[in-house]
Design a protein that fits this description.
The chain is built from five helices and seven strands, in the order βαααβββαβαββ. With 170 residues, it is α+β, with helices and mostly antiparallel strands. It has one domain (3-123): 3-Layer(aba) Sandwich (Aminopeptidase). The chain has a seven-stranded mixed sheet with strand order 1-2-3-4-5-7-6, sandwiched between helices. A hairpin with a 2-residue loop joins strand 6 and strand 7. Helix 1 packs across helix 3 (39-51). It is globular.
Amino acid sequence: MIIKIRKWKLLDAEDIAIALSNTRVQDNLRDGLPYPYTEQDGVDYISAMLSADENETFAFAIIADDKVIGSIGVFRQGNIHKKTAELGYYIAEEYWGKGVMTEAVKQICEYVFDKSDIIRIYAEPFVYNAASCRVLEKAGFQYEGTLRSNAVKNGKVIDMNMYSLLKAEK
């Protein structure tokens, strides 16, 4: 399976609507996404990513064997954290556990470090999402600690893990 990341196209909206209309996928993401996720929701998201400042928002479709299967993005933070960026991602459930996300994370981190002045990329997966923690570790991220009672998801107070990758470490 060939994995790559590429800039979004409006035609990708249908594929991401299918991937995000799955509660198991959404249970691992931040709140605010509509459910079910429609093709128009996808068009709106892709339009926003295409019009975003390319030095602040690094947003890509994840492609496996020429099909859009998910999304990955790195988002620059502000003020004293202006050289730090947060990583977020998801893929369709049928691609879980196949090494796809690890490869996509490696590709986007290389891109961001090569094309910007970002020096630190971090991610905050929910503690219960062991697969996402493994993805980050396999991609070279370091575990920095647990953020206790850091979020409320599906009505439950949960912990999140903090991982980071430094440009100097790549």
